[in-house]
Amino acid sequence: MEADNKELGGKIKWLLLLRVGVLTFFLGAAALVQFLKGGDPALLRYLQFPLIAAYLFSIASALVLRWVDKPVVFAHVQIDFDVLLITVVVLLTGGVDSPFPFLYNLAIISGAVLLFFPGAFITAGVAGVCYSGVLLWGYAHSASAPWQAAFNFALNVPAFFIIAYLSDLLARRVFVVERLLQAKQKDYLDLESFKDALLQGVGSGVAITDVKGQVSYFNSRAQALTSLGESSVKGKKLTDVFPGVTYSFDGAGDPNRIVVDEFPFTDPKKGTIHLKLTLAPLRDQNEQPLGYVCIFEDVTKRKELEEKVRLGEEMRKAKERERREREQEGPSDQFRFDGVVGRGGGVESIYRLVQKVAATTTNVLIMGDSGTGKELVARAIHSNGPRKDRPFIAVNCGAIPENLMESELFGHVRGAFTGAVSDHVGLFKQAESGTIFLDEVGELPLHLQVKMLRVLQEKAFTPVGGSRQLKVDVRVISASNRDLRQEVEKGRFREDLFYRLNVVQVTLPPLRNRKEDIPSLVHFFVAKFSGSQGKEVDEVSSEALMELMNYGFPGNIRELENIIEHAVAVTAKNIITEDDLPSYIRGVPIADEVKLFEKTTPGGPETFFNRSISLDDELATHEKCLLLGALKRANGVQKRAAELLGINYRSFRHRLEKYSLLGMKGQPEEEEQAVE
Description:
It is elongated, with a radius of gyration of 48 Å. It folds into 4 domains: 2-180, no CATH class; 202-298, PAS domain (Beta-Lactamase), CATH 3.30.450; 335-508, P-loop containing nucleotide triphosphate hydrolases (Rossmann fold, 3-Layer(aba) Sandwich), CATH 3.40.50; 615-675, Arc Repressor Mutant, subunit A, CATH 1.10.10. A hairpin with a 5-residue loop joins β1 and β2 (215-218). α11 packs parallel to α12. 28% of the residues are buried. The longest helix has 56 residues, at 146-201. It is an alpha/beta fold. It contains 26 helices and 14 strands. The strands form 4 sheets. It has a 5-stranded antiparallel beta sheet. Strands 7-8-11-6-12 form a 5-stranded parallel beta sheet.
């Protein structure tokens, strides 16, 4: 009952406002018509009185409405006042001839809206009585014909009751629809509250998307899990928020299939975590797609445990493989590849290539980063070839001073220069009938490159200060951590010498590209240093192995060897733990970044790294791609492109000039000038 009275009070407020608006409009219109027709000016003054009365009564009613105990009676009073006010207006505007009897219908409709059937019919009855009085008064005080009054009565009074009936019917239907909408809205709000409470109470993160994958809901657990606010996620596509999600929202897959996916996610507060996504389609009762519900779970600890188990299994397999190779007889006894451990990152193909070239005397160029084992490969080629019983001379070209390099390589005769008190046999001659390994061959100065080329072509050289050539029979294996092709292009290495050295090229992958070999390498080095240091260390903990797997190894295998030597030296147990590793190794979480890089690199990581990349060149290529991509999206307008990249216009122009991209064919210069 209280709710009904409150609702009726709200309707009365609208009635008061409507009364003032309608009377102001119609009385103003009536006054304007009278003025234009040249009517009695006194009538304009008379019309002010009902308007003022309506204003005052409405204001007073609005003030006392809050204290009214019986709003139904108050509503009848308001409607009856409207009827009396309309009666006065009709009298003032011509009585029988007034054009405003239809205003009674507005009062009747108001009665139906406020009080339904009783209000509509009571208002119609009061309006009929008042209008009848107006007709009688007009018949008695004017020269109007009786038939005109009777005609107006027959035309308007029955219409009042017809309007009352129709208004009541319409008002009731509107009332029923309104109540139904309110109930539906209440059910909807209750359902939303229930859904929100349910989803907020779920232990997992929950997101809801539309059919295109755009997020519309992101519960508090999902926000805590990812450190992302709901406002920053809403409206974005799920795959944009979580790039690791592989599901495509293009509708190409099975619409009824529940998808389970796991992916790494970089939390701005917690770092890299692993999330499990369960994605299920939502459908209405007609089986039409509505969207998707996405449930997130943090599986980082489980992934770490799985990784520990996997690494432990890798160590076990490494030990078992070493034991089998020691016990069995076969090709491994015929071909020795001492110190080169593992098969990942393309090492398997290197094994096969080395086996093929070892039996020949062909020159070999070994490419790879520092510490990848280039000298081990060179020794394997020598020790498995026809010259294995002859000398193997290793030369680090970068470690010999330039003024002594020619004498070291080719020797000198007595008196060739100050301090040359006797003949000196060069390294090339010391390697007679064997192999000379020129490490970091890219460090050779250009004038020595000419002499080196002559040695390779003619198999002869002249010692420093000598007058006759010396014949030499030597196999040349060279190595470089630089890209010699780029050195040739830049004029720092002779092209003819490069092709003489690069008859067969062996490219060694960096350790970051063969992480699967780390357990085997660790086991190999543990056995090596525990034996040399007289310790019984034969295990590595899973935690320590995980730290090693997560490290980037810029120094490659040589750095890993040093790390294990350090760990074996400092450990006081028979197992290496993470506390035995150098402090700079611990807590470097790059494994996921490496995996993401290897997953997204065009052509795969092997294709990328085997090109002997230059970081500066790669960054320059990437920058040019971004500049051109921004220009394309900005339709060639440089200021817009600079805004897209978040840099100022001058900086953008400078970068275009840097890469000779200014004035490219197809750029809309007129538009650019207009913008400028």
